Amino acid sequence: MYMFKYVTKRIALMLLTFFIIFTMCFVLIKLLPIPTNVLPGQDPEIVAKTLEGRGWITNLREGKNGVWLYDRVPILEQYATYLKRIITQGDFGIATTYGEYINMPIWEVFKSHLPPTILINIYSTLIGVPIGLALGILAALKKNKWQDQLINIFIILLISVPSVVLALLIQYVLCFKLGWFPLTMSTSDAYFTWPVFRSMLPAVFALCLGSIAGYARYTRAELSEVLTGEFMLLARTKGLTKSQAIRRHAMRNSMVVIFPSILSEFIGVFFGSMIIEKMFAINGVGGLYLNSITFQDYDFFMLLSGFQTLIGLTAAIVIDISYGFIDPRIRMGAK
Question: DSSP secondary structure string, 155-186?
């Protein structure tokens, strides 16, 4: 019962937080000038009429030299129209200034860019988690020995070097010098074929190196602390061997802290990495987000900002809730 109340309260707070952040993004975006850029071959009247039809401008009229004049719709009125359209019609808007997607439904464009982002992050998680845990466990079991020192040096290097630099090194060594992988991801949508998977691997390696270092560091710290606990000595005095005590007690207790972060990373695969996607020319959500800012396409920006905010808040809730399921001693919401 305590857990149900706690989860309900957290979800309600999450939705409230999301609404506040989403509202702030909308208001701040709408304080900027409304882009009315006309691309070659476009009719200025059609561009202006599209903005008027979406409820962003009103009192449209033609001025001198063919320039269309308009008045701004009040921001709160725009926001009410925007939310009503999303809730009642599932309409997140159409692209108005994003060159190649002009007049296309934003939600459809977003869905078409989502698979590459999900896949590269899932692959990086599947590679990074077991390697990171294995290195952390080995470092904890061989604490203060040469294996531990070597792993610590590896971890410090990965944490200290920015992911952009690691990505450049991967491109230079694995792609350019050795020629094992292409420099950029294939444009094919056959994501589960070997050529496309092979073209994803450089970006996957660039993403998972940071995860490996993080998991190794956390696992080493938690497992080292658990191994020095008094209950481990008690387990040994009851007849358990060292390996049995580690498997049955030390590993389970150390996973209380580590496992929630793994869950959050699986949820966070939708979040993507904008810089890595841009560097490896991955046609994913990250590049779409950056380009929406460049083209000043506000509806694109709102959808992507809202989506990433929701993913971040959901990951935080999953971390908190998972503690109660992993460790029966923890009861969320209990007094």
Answer: HHHHHHS-HHHHHHHHIIIIIIIS-SS-SS--
What's the pLDDT tens digit per position in 126-163?
888 888 888 888 888 888 888 888 888 888 888 888 87
Of the candidates 269, 267, 235, 265, the one whose C-alpha atom is nearest the C-alpha of residue 252 is 235
- Rounded distance between C-alpha atoms, residue 171 and residue 101, angstroms: 30
Length of the chain: 335
d(CA 262, CA 273): 17
For the segment 244-278, what is each residue's pLDDT rounded down to a tens digit? 676 666 666 777 677 777 766 666 555 557 778 88
Quote the CA–CA distance of 251 and 264 in Å, as a whole number: 20
Taking the C-alpha atoms of residue 198 and residue 205, their distance in angstroms, rounded to an integer, is 11
- Report whether 216 contacts 155 (CB < 8 A): yes
- pLDDT tens track for 45-56: 677 777 777 777
- Residue 62: beta bridge partners? 68
Phi and psi torsions of 143, nearest 5°: -60, 135
316 with 269: CB under 8 angstroms? no
Question: What CATH number does domain 108-326 carry, 1.10.3720.10, 3.30.1460.10, 2.60.130.10, 3.90.1010.20?
Answer: 1.10.3720.10
Q: Given the structure tokens 């899932």, which residue do they identify?
A: 122
DSSP summary character for residue 22: H
Any idea which residue has 């694109």 for tokens?
Answer: 300
Residue 184 in contact with residue 281, Cβ under 8 Å? yes
Domain boundaries, the chain: 2-104, 108-326
Among 257, 197, 253, CA closest to 230: 253
